[in-house]
Specification:
Helix Hairpins; 561 residues; six-stranded mixed beta sheet
Length: 561
Amino acid sequence: MHYGYPSIQADFNEDGLGNSGVIDALEEAEEFLERRLPRDIVSFFFYDGEKIQQLAEANQDGLMKNIEKLVGLAAVDTLDVYLERAIRAWNRDGTLAQEQAVLDKMSAIQQLKKAERAKAQADVDDVEAELENLDRDIRRHERYIQTTRTLAAQSDTPRQKEKAIQAAEQYETLCKKVASTLPPAAPLWAVPGLVQQVANMLDGAVGDSTQRLAEEMQDVFDILPGRLFDEPTHPSPPLSDPQKKHYRAKLAAILKQFTEPPSGGFFSLNPAETTALQRQISYYAQARNERQRFADDLREASRLHREWQHAKAEVDAVDELSPEQQQHFRERQAALADLQGQRDTLLIQRGTHGGKIAVLDTDIVRLAAEIRQQETKRTIVNINSQNIQRAQQARRVFDEYRLRLKAQRHDEIECALNRCFGQLMTSHHLIADIKLSEDFALSYHDAHGGEIGLANVSAGMKQLTAQALLWALSEVSGRGIPVIVDTPLARIDRQHQENLLRNYYPNAAQQVIVLPTDSELDREKYILLKPRVNAEFRLDNPDGDRTQVVQNTPMYSVEEA
């Protein structure tokens, strides 16, 4: 037991303090202390004797929660909080029913897409079958028409074909020539009058001396101010900046009439641009032979095209057939054209169905990937669902455990409280029993079981009740925490002070530190404690500003005591 300045000696090396056993960082020190002595239960071990009776009067929720924490109930509450958080986290991923519903919906959409694809493939197969029939009919009609043409014009067919081939080759050769030689500016060949008019205007612009003078004066004005005002030699005294600004503006106004290009006309170009454009336009205005040559080539190409078409028509001629044969031939040609039209329509339909199949295949592949992801998510949610069930089951188990633990701790505290109170209160028997409610609220009862109102309980009794409660809590909690008490004998009469000194302080904890004054602890009381004292300290603070700790200084000498 220590008197004076608090001193706690303990070995905490097993908690990872290192070889020095010292924590320098404030946050680490606070965390270290919080693990061993949470702030909420400090008041049960470090307290002021003058204020301790408030513990016996205060039945508020905060105090009851702290008692629950002290006796180990808070750990179960913390576990319940973490289980609840885990359940909420698992629930955020969705329930098994929800994820199964999403999976069923995806599977249904995939089956619908597969059904649509099967229908589209069936449509393609139908079109392919129709195309096969049409191709067979088309080949049959083409064979008939070819045979009829062969019989109708056996003698003339080679010559007519040769003539058509020659006309086609000549037409193609001339078209290639025109395409390769016709320049990008070909439209200028087609409007010679307009080109000549523009050329005349450019000739006039090139010969305008005023334009050239404006260009040359502008060049002079670009260099004249800098050389005049900035290059040496300078006048003495030199011109100021406002003066330079004034003369620059004046010089600009004078030269402006010479540097402005002439306005009006069709062109507003500088001389170099005007000259370049004039050369280009003059070429197209004078190139009459070139224009005539291109015109002749185009007329010849038109003639060759007409000759080719005529020769081609002669090949298809069936004039030597009888009227009935000619009518049947034309009917076959019309039927062939109709079949070819039907074939083109079916080809378009096949392309449409093929495009639809490609889109459906993409959707089916995408849905398959999404379904796999959803199946994985459903598996996770199923695991979460099982975890939730286990967590809820664990919560029920821990709730039941908490109720039983609370009841057990309640009975242990109540029993220890009455035993400790009996050792401290010996003067009278007004209070025969102290009961604790389910929430650890105190109530006083007489020998007949009747409840005693707080107004009938003296301050000293309340303080002794609080001392007994702290003693009982320390025993039941099983925590090896030292007890530190300031003003240990406040408001207690002499008889009960001796009970505290004989029974409470030697047994309150494995290590007890009391901070009495010499007016509170006289020599007689000191004699009661002396056999249990391990070390003493004196706190000197004469000016109230700084306390000096004096070690190994007994409060009273043994002889004096």
